[in-house]
Amino acid sequence: MSSQEKTLLRVILTEGDIRKVSLAKKPDSVDNLVVALKESLGLNYNFSLQYEDQDFGNALCNLTDISELQDRATLKIIPIIELEALNQEEVLDDSASTADTEILSTSSQERKTQWPKEFEIPFFTVDVEYRLRQGNLAYLKDNTYLKLTKELKHDILEKLAETMFSFKAYPTNDDYAQVAAALVNKHPCLLESGSSTGWGGWKNSLKFKMGNFRSKMRNLGYPDVTINGGRRGMNNPEGIPSRKRIKKPKKCEINFLPNFPEGHNNDSLELVRKEIQYEMKMRTPSPSLLAQQMDLTFALRRKEIVESAPAISDVLERWPALFREPQVGRLSVFNLIKGLFS
Q1: Running DSSP on this structure, what letter comes out for residue 329?
Q2: Which PANTHER family match (predicted)?
Q3: DSSP assignment, residue 119?
Q4: Averaged pLDDT of the chain
Q5: Domain boundaries in the chain?
Q6: Does pTM top 0.90 for this prediction?
Q7: Would you state the CATH architecture of domain 7-79?
Q8: How far apart are the C-alpha atoms of 310 and 304, rounded to whole Å?
Q9: pLDDT digits over 295-332, tens only?
Q10: Which runs of consecutive H residues, i.e. helices, occur in the chain?
């Protein structure tokens, strides 16, 4: 077949989504074919291709050579994703609670580390660091406390809230105390006279600042705080009752409710979910393909579980691969299989 001839293809996206694609000419490489299919089908994620090989009774084989592509061929889209290994030093020990915790995705980027044992105060802007350094020198000389301006206190709290949010959207009371104590330990000029701890006021200020910071992140669409938006209040009398339990991570959860992977939305991930169901109906499902697809759809799965709290039977129906041994064995903070069979 000449490379200038029109090419007609049958493309399987999922079991329930099979499309007819017409290309003006046959691509000269598999990579160019992928590009052409992305444009024709409006796909914004990476994938490989399989084709029905007539030499093996139309069984699917990986398409690695464009010469294997015939006119009116049937192709199957196989979504792919690059995985990143989770640093085992950054996960909790086996004593951490794992109740109601789904496996963690190794490629999700929202929560990179757990809350540190020792909170390290971040560096502030050059101006703030200079004023704190001068204040610390004065304190060491004659125990003079720094006179805080409203602007200076705002800058300090804003940076601390941003750093805390990178670990947790909802810090505990002990977390606030830890940060406040670390702040005055590094910058003794910020100690509060008349306070039994020297940092009680900072702790309370951090709580208010984190509330404001969560509101800002909620407006930007961060899922782990938007999930708790719309609660009942003076400006929202019809919202969710404020006494309703806040949805937030358990002690062991690093990736509670991450954003969708870059280039994906609910519709594209739903296609991958259907592909998982299709693959699970095969006599011998591909472990590597299922691992890729389950990792890619982690954010969608978490969204469903956190927002809707579906029954186990519903989860099993929509995510049959989740209950396979390789998926159970990927629980990042606890060796579940070893614990069950020890």
Answers
A1: T
A2: SI:CH211-196P9.1-RELATED, SI:CH73-42K18.1-RELATED
A3: P
A4: 78
A5: 7-79, 89-111+254-342, 112-226
A6: no
A7: Roll (3.10)
A8: 8
A9: 888 888 888 887 778 888 888 889 888 877 766 655 54
A10: 30-41, 126-142, 150-167, 173-186, 200-219, 223-226, 266-280, 287-296, 298-308, 312-318, 325-328, 336-341
